[in-house]
Amino acid sequence: SSGGLTIDNSTAENNATIYTISESPRDGDVIWVGTDDGYVQVTENGGATWRNVTAAIPGVPEGTWVSRVTASPHDRAAAWVTFDGHRTGDMATYVYRTTDLGRTWERLPTDGVEGYAWVIVEDPERPGLLYLGTEFGLWISLDGGASWARFEGGIPKRVAVHDIVVHPDEADLIVATHGRGIYILDDLTPLRALTPEVLEEKAALLPSRPARMVTPAQVQEWVGDDEFVGDTPEEAAAITFWQKRRHLFGDLKVEVYGPDGERIATLPAPKRKGLNRVSWPMRLKPPKVPPASSLIPAFLGPRVPEGTYTVKLIKGKDVLEGTVTLVADPRSPHSAEDRKLQQETALALYRDLERLAYTIDTVIQLRDAARERAEGAPKRLARRLEAYADELEAFRASLVATGEGGMLSGEEKLREKLGELYGAVSGYDGRPTGSQLERKARLERELEAAAARFAGLTGERLADLNRRLERRGLAPLEVQTREAWEAAQE
What we know:
- The N and C termini lie far apart (about 75 Å).
- The strands form six sheets. A five-stranded mixed β-sheet has the order 17-23-22-19-20, with no helix packed on it.
- Among the domains are: about 190-215 and about 235-330, Sandwich (Immunoglobulin-like), CATH 2.60.40; about 335-490, no CATH class.
- By secondary structure, the chain is of the alpha+beta class.
- It contains eight helices and 23 strands.
């Protein structure tokens, strides 16, 4: 019979339908099937004969819909099965396991699991790592089903999970929901590393797959507000760590170090217990740009080169160390040599912009300090200070746009030219053009000339003014060091 369902007006059958099929990855002759009238059957000879194993499954009401049967990817004799009785008012969670081709079955404990079960999948890489979809969410077991934890991670808490697939190449978990779209959990590598030993640690930095430095797509189109699209994956390397308990006291942060040992990023870390993930955008911070009246295309830091980077989890006084590897987008049409030149050129322009920013900021600081000293100085010294301030301002105006209208005015000085070139080079993953490389060389010569003029303004000329100030009991004019300037930018 159909298990008591009322026949609908079309007189369609509600029973005796094979609803789920699973072939063993370990042995193609072992095939499992489950039906909508509660039967589980298995063949060991590719379908020549079948054995009904339903009677060996304890505790499930007769006729309960077999929502999923899944052959184990690790053991030809093992399988998992879920039952769904909600059509007859049974909201219990039924999850079973066999290790002897269905001759005996064990009902797995589901304490705390909410909702009747739709699907169960075992991880193809790590035995005992299970993914369970129920009417009320996604659940994960690290111990073969002995215990379960709700997985949220962006998936709605009360959504029905109807299907789960582990991507065989990307190691992503693909989750199909009822009415709420498809979700992708990127990179199961950290989950697979959560062994019983790791779970007993106070904290652990977990491995991750290589992060791809995706070549950005140039899309020039606008869609209507009624078109639904999924979110684009974050362009970042994921750094995942485990905490046995919530972090309460002391620092908790992640630091990233380059191959030369230089710290290139400091990232705040979540303090909650369990799995935590930090995203590193694989870029340096945006360049420090000299202030002026116009904007320049220097809003993003340059990408760091491909390679392996050291990651440190700073947890109070404890330091845990691991690595993260960055690799090129396999779709990139650019050679490794061209990408390397692009990265080196963008980084050089980045440093040029920061060098200019230090110069301009120091000039502004000196200019303002000179004018302040002039207010309380004798007339002759005040005139010297005002003249010095005017010369500093003229020097600044030779390096940055100062007129109204910003870029619309057409005024371009060294700052604007460097910023425009940096934006063009850093925004394209391929080899810089010959004209871009020539322009870089020309602008760097201008930067060197500016540095020489800056040295003259802050050399003997400034020393003479400071001697005069000190004789009159006034504070000298100080040139901030590059180190102090960089520390102030943090």
